[in-house]
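STRUCTURE:
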């Protein structure tokens, strides 16, 4: 198999582009996709300091590696969730990567914010799916950190597969409000919320795996053990089987939506008014924000449990 660009021995074939690439040309393809996304969506410039959410997984590690290599100023932020060996390994990976590349990194321990590790919290709040609880907690503490530290942009490694799966979930449930604003660049709706960007939204999981392999970028290969039942994995499976039969389906689905479909939902949508949480002062659509409501439930659960053990 020959590289479609230069004719050298190819290293991979990308069916959705109907092209094969050697290592150098693949790197060029990959990095042009990222730069194209950053420019097209006006995500950030080299004058800005980009905060990157680094979980230790392949996507965020590849993003951190690339942005640093391309000369962007970055700081990594990692949320330590306390999920046993999985969290320990993830933290080690981001710490040693930061050290070996001379990068700045901040670790936020979820227990410092909610008084429990994530597995403890999921046991107490059984009515919430672990990933949804984790998502709400992480969103809050990451945004709070970003705002307090003066970061104006927060980047994540979400890729085409992630975004297409989210889109499928939003369509299946007709989440009109989410469809109206699903975008790889979410502007800040409130002075206490940073804007959020996803520079990998045009790259597939497979392409990111090629990139991390090519550059020996360390990452944790296992999935989070709490995410096993996540709905998004089912959506990915469906999309992968469609992709297998018709390469390019995921790309058409997501990019077609962003270019042509989203506008119809956006027209129908009025963004909710944001005010400040009565307890913590962070933005919310209700009197008390989702995070403070989680804290309250955790506290109430603790009271219930101690009343229960006293009556035994
Ligand atoms: Fe959040 Fe696993 S990383 S539930
Ligand atoms: Zn609050």
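SEQUENCE:
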């Amino acid at each position: 198999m020959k590289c479609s660009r230069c004719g050298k021995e190819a290293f991979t074939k990308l069916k959705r582009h109907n092209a094969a690439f050697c290592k150098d040309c693949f790197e060029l393809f990959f990095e042009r996709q990222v730069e194209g996304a950053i420019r097209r969506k006006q995500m950030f410039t080299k004058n800005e300091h980009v905060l990157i959410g680094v979980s230790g997984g392949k996507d965020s590690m590849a993003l951190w590696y690339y942005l640093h290599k391309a000369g962007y100023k970055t700081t990594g932020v990692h949320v330590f969730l306390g999920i046993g060996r999985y969290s320990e390994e993830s933290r080690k990976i981001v710490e040693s990567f930061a050290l070996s590349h001379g990068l700045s990194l901040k670790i936020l321990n979820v227990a410092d914010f909610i008084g429990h590790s994530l597995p403890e919290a999921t046991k107490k709040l059984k009515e919430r799916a672990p990933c949804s609880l984790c998502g709400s907690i992480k969103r809050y503490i990451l945004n709070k950190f970003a705002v307090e530290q003066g970061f104006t942009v927060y980047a994540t490694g979400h890729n085409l597969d992630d975004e297409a799966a989210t889109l499928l979930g939003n369509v299946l449930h007709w989440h009109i409000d989410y469809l109206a604003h699903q975008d790889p660049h979410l502007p800040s709706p409130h002075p206490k919320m940073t804007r959020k960007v996803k520079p990998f939204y045009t790259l597939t999981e497979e392409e990111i795996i090629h990139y991390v392999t090519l550059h020996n970028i360390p990452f944790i290969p296992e999935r989070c053990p709490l995410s096993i039942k996540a709905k998004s994995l089912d959506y990915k499976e469906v999309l992968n089987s469609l992709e297998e039969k018709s390469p390019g389906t995921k790309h058409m689905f997501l990019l077609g939506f962003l270019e042509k479909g989203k506008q119809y939902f956006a027209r129908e949508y009025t963004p909710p008014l944001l005010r400040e949480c009565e307890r913590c002062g962070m933005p919310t659509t209700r009197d008390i924000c989702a995070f403070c409501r989680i804290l309250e439930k955790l506290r109430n659960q603790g009271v219930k449990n101690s009343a229960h053990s006293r009556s035994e």
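REMARK: The chain has two domains: 12-219+226-271, 273-312.
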